[in-house]
């Protein structure tokens, strides 16, 4: 890789925010160096690259760091304009994709964290909220799949696909750890079809970490959160 166009991604293997950037680079065929970061013991380099949030992912392009996964994804799409384009060229369609991407980022992820990090009545409410928000998403994505058939491939995968997939592609492992149902095919059939189509893509399949490894970190996150809340 030439130094004049060097790309480095600082990430963490289990982070959905890191994974979506990694997938975007791979779908666009952009060569990059990957640096695995230890979030329990952050290196000075990471803190220097992202002094505001001190988190991953950070994309370094030609020595210049870009932080925040959604910002990085748009930067990638604007810098490497080859297929697949992550955002539509039409301004209205682009705004709609950004709207629903924001919904997933702000609403669904926040609610999923509540489900993971609580128990009892608080968790039960989180599960109900998750279903309600997934049903809102079900209605919303009909504008992208008017025939009810999500046809996603390596040439048309977009921003919303990457963000949703990064959070829910391994939902079965999440359900296993939590012991509750998150994705209900009867109530959100289009969302389920969309997720199935995404999970059939080779790069998405390859991006999902091994079952036992992912289940172990989900359990750790949950147990640690519950322990902290009861302290």
Architecture overview:
With 231 residues, the protein is an alpha+beta fold. The chain is 57% helix and 7% strand. It has a four-stranded mixed sheet, covered by helices on one side.
**Unreliable residue runs:** none
User: Largest beta sheet, briefly?
Assistant: 4 strands, mixed
Principal-axis shape equals globular
Q: How many helices in DSSP terms?
A: 10
Please indicate the percent range of residues in DSSP E strands (runs of 2 or more): 5-15%
What's the order of the H and E elements? EHEHEEHHHHHHHH
Strand order of the largest sheet: 2-1-3-4
Give the strand tally.
4
Helix content: 55-70%
Write the layout of secondary structure elements.
Blueprint: E1 7-11, H1 16-27, E2 33-36, H2 44-49, E3 58-61, E4 64-67, H3 69-79, H4 91-117, H5 120-140, H6 159-168, H7 171-178, H8 189-199, H9 202-207, H10 211-230
Parallel strand pairs: 1-2
Antiparallel strand pairs: 1-3, 3-4
Helix pairs in contact: 1-3, 1-6, 4-5, 4-6, 7-10
Summarize the structure.
The chain has ten helices and four strands, in the order βαβαββαααααααα.
């Amino acid at each position: 890789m030439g130094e004049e166009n060097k790309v480095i991604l600082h990430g963490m293997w289990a982070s959905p925010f890191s994974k979506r950037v990694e997938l975007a680079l791979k779908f666009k065929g952009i060569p990059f160096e990957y640096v695995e970061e230890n979030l329990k013991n952050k290196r000075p380099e990471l803190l220097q690259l992202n002094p505001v949030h001190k988190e991953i992912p950070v994309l370094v392009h030609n020595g210049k760091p870009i932080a925040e996964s959604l910002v990085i994804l748009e930067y990638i799409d604007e810098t490497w304009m080859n297929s697949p384009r992550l955002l539509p060229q039409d301004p209205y369609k682009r705004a709609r994709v950004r709207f629903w991407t924001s919904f997933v980022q702000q609403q669904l992820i926040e609610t999923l964290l509540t489900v993971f990090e609580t128990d009892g009545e608080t968790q039960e409410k989180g599960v109900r909220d998750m279903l309600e928000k997934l049903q809102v998403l079900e209605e919303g994505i009909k504008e992208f799949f008017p025939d009810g058939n999500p046809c996603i491939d390596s040439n048309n995968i977009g921003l919303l696909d990457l963000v949703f997939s990064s959070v829910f592609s391994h939902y079965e492992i999440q359900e296993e750890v939590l012991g509750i149902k998150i994705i209900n095919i009867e109530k959100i059939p289009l969302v389920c079809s969309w997720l199935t189509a995404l999970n059939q893509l080779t790069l998405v399949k390859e991006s999902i970490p091994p079952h036992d490894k992912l289940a172990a970190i989900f359990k750790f996150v949950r147990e640690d959160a519950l322990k902290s809340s009861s302290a």
